[in-house]
Amino acid sequence: MTAASDSLVDLLGGKRGALDATAPPVVFAAGWLISGQSIAWGAAAAVVASALLAVWRMSRGEKVTAVLGGLAAVVVAALVALYTGRAEDFFLIQLLSNTASSLAWALSILIRWPLLGVVVGLLLGQKARWRRDPDLLRAYGRASWVWTAQYALRTVVYGLLWWSGQVVALTAARVVLSWPLLALVVAVSAVVLRRALPAEHPGFRHPRVPDQ
């Protein structure tokens, strides 16, 4: 990756979130298969795995709200599968969240508040200063389409596999479309962002705000 893409990875927490995104569904599928397709055992295994991850992350000083949010998502997914009696419904929350994310990112670009700029701006403490830089606003808009496509791809893949009840394939898709896809998206969006800016622009960390 380039320095810009590495910087975006660090800002967006991709490396830290990779384990959270893949371990619980893999453990769910493993527990479900080993127990003779028992949703209860699969759900229990996933929740325990997520709880252990939460304890480990908190021991490393990570934010409690973020850690508990990940655990809560796994608990809700487990409860949904237990309620419906369909193992594939463990992945329903992910399907719905990716659908909503795809729509939200596309809308943010259309209303000229591209979410990549919003997220990076907040993480860098820039608030909305980046929007006063026309070049950066345009660049964030273009780069945000890469992220929109990511969520759209997940929606299509997860949707087709969920509809056909392919639990093992859903698990594999969840792994492939988590960190590997995110790494590609970060790299591509970093390239798009850099190329959309004029050669003399100092970069996304330094918005050029016009004099008042």
UniProtKB/TrEMBL annotation:
Pfam family, one: DUF3159
Keyword Membrane annotated: yes
Keyword line: Membrane, Transmembrane, Transmembrane helix
TM spans (from-to): 39-57, 64-83, 103-124, 145-165, 177-197
The organism's place on the tree of life at top rank: Bacteria
InterPro entries named among the record's database cross-references: UCP010219
The name this protein goes by in its record: Putative conserved membrane protein
Organism: Actinokineospora spheciospongiae
Lineage of producing organism: Bacteria, Bacillati, Actinomycetota, Actinomycetes, Pseudonocardiales
